[in-house]
């Protein structure tokens, strides 16, 4: 085999090395006449280091790079520490390798020098690409034709190979411009700039900085595009403009930026994810396939991962299976890079919040994360903890995609697979990139599109002691039926009474009485205790309407189930009577995320994943302790709780949240019914077509009628 690689950057050079490592000839075509020193800092996390180690390059990398001991996130104005992510040897133990910070030119030189001189052709600008059944070819601007078995476009965000494959495409502008600069160490004496990721975040702006050499410091200062008028990599900016953009920052930042004597400016551009980047014997790699914003520091690492998988697939299929190899490469890489692209855009969004209120929410989320994720695993392990050497040997379906579920995961029944696929596609990459507002809109769209409230359903807006709710009549309420007070799911960040109306209608019909579904306030705009306060007020409002506590059944799914259980825990302390019982489906009872299935089943559950749950939970409790029983009812004194009807799915992330709560409640003398459902999805009761949903609601209704009959007997006695 002979492979042509268009582009001699980090991705192209690493691809050539990986191909040669697998015994495959490679030629790199680089249009630049020389490998010039360009750019600034690059971060190579463990997932990239593992590949460079396998190629024998880590010792050389260690000679020219620095090893950060941690990431510090600080407030841009006050300097207050908001979040810390340990790195260095501690992270290496978790992820299998060190993170390195390095000058881009040093890394490119390292890769270039590891290749035979005839492998890289400088001044070789691509004019056209073509292919036939026997091979692929590149025509250079000089007219020279070079033939090979395949052509790899590793020529960056402005890829000529991509344009040849897909035609002209618009790149996306993040409306952010970045000042990039390098400062000699001598100018920074006296400033507290440890060998770490020293990062500051403020209103619509940020500074990311670190040592790329022992004597050279790299700065990326990002500001709104309206504050700078140039966006060229080669044009030096007016340093006065940069200083104006960061006036009022804490002293360390101001003193550091004042040492910059020249800078270049680039716009923050990216490409939207694409499903396919391979055609026959031509494929794309790195930024040509999945250009991303730099705020996960994964652009270089993802191209390094690409290189290894591409070489592995070509080696596996051999010269007779080039096209099949390129398709396998794409199938293995596209889901992961799409997830990384979305995560990077989310990181940019939260790093440049548009107003003071959003900044408070972000900082509160980071404070919450520091409580439940002190090692920053759920923030970074999905990127850093991916061992591509092992992954390339596993079945392609093991790759984790945008939904954080394994792409090859399959359910046993067609109806459960249908529900699985619906959850899997509920939130798209653009929704994730927009942060909680995008995810909230996607969740509403998912529920109201797939499960709209029937036109015949009686839905009436009501107010329960100042809390908005919907009274839902599922048909023919029975005088002796239960009244349901329902709390929707959505991890305290998503969901609404309106989008839960269809489910509330089925609850009403099953329990034979009205269902009140509550529009409690959502985080991060309204962190703890807003939701539990609204739950108490809604319960009081129901009592004020003349509904006897003995008729009330609390209900909730996922976070709503946790909220219903927390409310039941707090009622006695508030001097309020207990309800007849609580129905909690897949309840979120432990916001410390310490349950064993949270880790074990992440990747099997498309509705919930450890990483996303950590972000959402931290958005809710923020500066409060997550072990507070009104946040995480699992940690409460469960004695005196009313009867519980609990249900969860075997194999879902929150399975242990349910089973541990059931075990603790039984130990406290509580009457508990626990149903574990096989071959289903998180909050399966939302899906009316699932037989287990119909069965569970019917059983919940029978259980509630039994509670009501028992209560009436006691009242009569």
Structural commentary:
- The protein is α/β, with parallel strands linked by helices and 717 residues long.
- The chain has 24 helices and 26 strands.
- The strands form five sheets. It has an eight-stranded mixed beta sheet with strand order 19-20-22-21-23-24-25-26, sandwiched between helices. A seven-stranded mixed beta sheet has the order 5-4-13-14-15-12-16. The chain has a six-stranded mixed beta sheet with strand order 7-2-1-11-18-17, sandwiched between helices.
- Helix 10 packs antiparallel against helix 11 and helix 13 packs antiparallel against helix 22.
- The mean pLDDT is 94.
How would you concisely characterize the structure shown here?
The protein has 717 residues and is α/β, with parallel strands linked by helices. It is 38% helix and 20% strand.
Measured by DSSP, the beta-strand proportion falls in 15-25%
**Cα Rg:** 28 Å
Count up the helices.
Answer: 24
User: What composes the largest sheet?
Assistant: 8 strands, mixed
Summarize the amount of helix as a percent range: 25-40%
Cross-sheet strand order for the largest sheet = 19-20-22-21-23-24-25-26
Please give the number of β-strands: 26
Structural class, by secondary structure, is alpha/beta
Based on Cα principal axes, name the global outline: globular
Mean of residue pLDDT values: 94
Distance between the termini: 89 Å
Low-confidence stretches: none
């Amino acid at each position: 085999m002979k492979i042509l690689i268009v582009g001699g950057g980090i991705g192209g050079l690493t691809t050539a090395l990986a191909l040669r490592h697998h015994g495959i000839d490679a030629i790199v075509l680089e249009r630049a006449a020389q490998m010039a020193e360009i750019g600034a800092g690059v971060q190579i996390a463990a997932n990239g280091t593992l590949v460079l180690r396998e190629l024998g390059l880590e010792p050389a990398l260690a000679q020219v790079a620095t090893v950060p001991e941690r990431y510090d996130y600080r407030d841009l104005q006050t300097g207050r520490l908001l979040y810390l992510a340990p790195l260095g040897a501690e992270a290496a133990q978790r992820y299998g390798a060190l993170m390195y910070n390095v000058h881009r030119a040093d890394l490119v030189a390292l890769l270039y020098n590891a290749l035979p001189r005839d492998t890289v052709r400088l001044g070789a600008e691509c004019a056209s690409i073509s292919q036939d059944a026997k091979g692929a070819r590149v025509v250079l601007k000089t007219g020279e034709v070079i033939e090979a078995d395949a052509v790899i476009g590793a020529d960056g965000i402005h890829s000529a190979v991509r344009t040849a494959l897909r035609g002209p495409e618009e790149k996306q502008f993040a409306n952010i411009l970045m000042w990039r600069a390098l400062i000699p160490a001598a100018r920074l004496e006296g400033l507290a700039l440890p060998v770490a990721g020293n990062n500051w975040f403020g209103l619509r702006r940020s500074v990311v900085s670190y040592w790329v050499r022992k004597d050279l410091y790299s700065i990326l200062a990002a500001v709104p595009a309206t504050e700078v008028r140039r966006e060229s990599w080669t044009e030096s900016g007016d340093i006065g403009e940069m200083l104006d953009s960061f006036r009022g920052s804490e002293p360390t930042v101001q003193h550091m930026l004042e040492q910059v004597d020249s800078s270049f400016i680039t716009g923050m551009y990216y490409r939207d994810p694409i499903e396919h980047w391979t055609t026959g014997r031509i494929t794309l790699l790195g930024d040509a396939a999945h250009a991303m914003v730099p705020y996960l520091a994964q652009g270089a690492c993802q191209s390094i991962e690409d290189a290894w998988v591409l070489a592995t697939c070509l080696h596996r299929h051999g010269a007779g299976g080039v096209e099949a190899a390129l398709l396998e490469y794409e199938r293995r890489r596209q889901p992961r890079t799409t997830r990384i692209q979305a995560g990077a855009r989310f990181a940019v969004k939260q790093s440049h919040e548009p107003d003071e209120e959003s900044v408070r929410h972000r900082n509160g989320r980071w404070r919450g994360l520091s409580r439940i994720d002190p090692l920053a695993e759920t923030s970074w392990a999905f990127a850093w903890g991916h061992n591509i050497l092992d992954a390339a040997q596993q079945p392609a379906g093991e790759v984790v995609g945008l939904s954080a579920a394994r792409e090859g995961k399959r359910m046993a029944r067609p109806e459960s697979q249908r529900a699985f696929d619906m959850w899997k596609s509920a939130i798209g990459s653009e929704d994730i990139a927009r942060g909680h507002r995008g995810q909230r809109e996607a969740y509403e769209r998912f529920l109201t599109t797939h499960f709209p409230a029937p036109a015949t359903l009686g839905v009436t807006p009501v107010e329960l002691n100042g809390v908005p709710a919907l009274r839902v009549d599922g048909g023919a309420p029975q005088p002796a039926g239960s009244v349901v007070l329902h709390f929707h799911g959505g991890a305290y960040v998503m969901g609404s009474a309106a989008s839960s109306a269809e489910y509330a209608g089925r609850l009403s019909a099953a329990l034979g009485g009205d269902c009140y579904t509550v529009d409690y306030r959502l985080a991060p705009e309204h962190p703890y205790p807003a939701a539990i306060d609204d739950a108490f007020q809604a319960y009081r409002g129901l009592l004020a309407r003349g509904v006897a506590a003995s008729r009330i059944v609390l209900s909730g799914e996922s976070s709503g189930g946790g909220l219903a259980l927390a409310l039941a825990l707090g009622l006695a302390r508030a001097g309020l009577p207990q309800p007849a019982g609580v129905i909690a489906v897949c309840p979120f009872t432990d916001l410390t995320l310490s349950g064993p299935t949270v880790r074990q089943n992440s990747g099997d559950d498309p509705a919930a994943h450890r990483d996303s749950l950590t972000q959402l939970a931290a958005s809710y409790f923020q500066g409060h302790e997550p072990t507070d029983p009104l946040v995480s009812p699992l940690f409460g004194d469960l004695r005196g709780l009313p009867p519980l009807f609990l249900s969860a799915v075997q194999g879902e992330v929150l399975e242990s949240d349910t089973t541990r709560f059931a075990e603790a409640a039984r130990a406290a003398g509580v009457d508990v019914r626990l149903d574990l459902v096989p071959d289903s999805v998180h909050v399966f009761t939302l899906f009316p077509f699932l037989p287990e949903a119909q069965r569970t609601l019917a059983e919940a209704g029978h259980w509630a009628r039994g509670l009501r009959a028992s209560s009436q007997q006691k009242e009569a006695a």
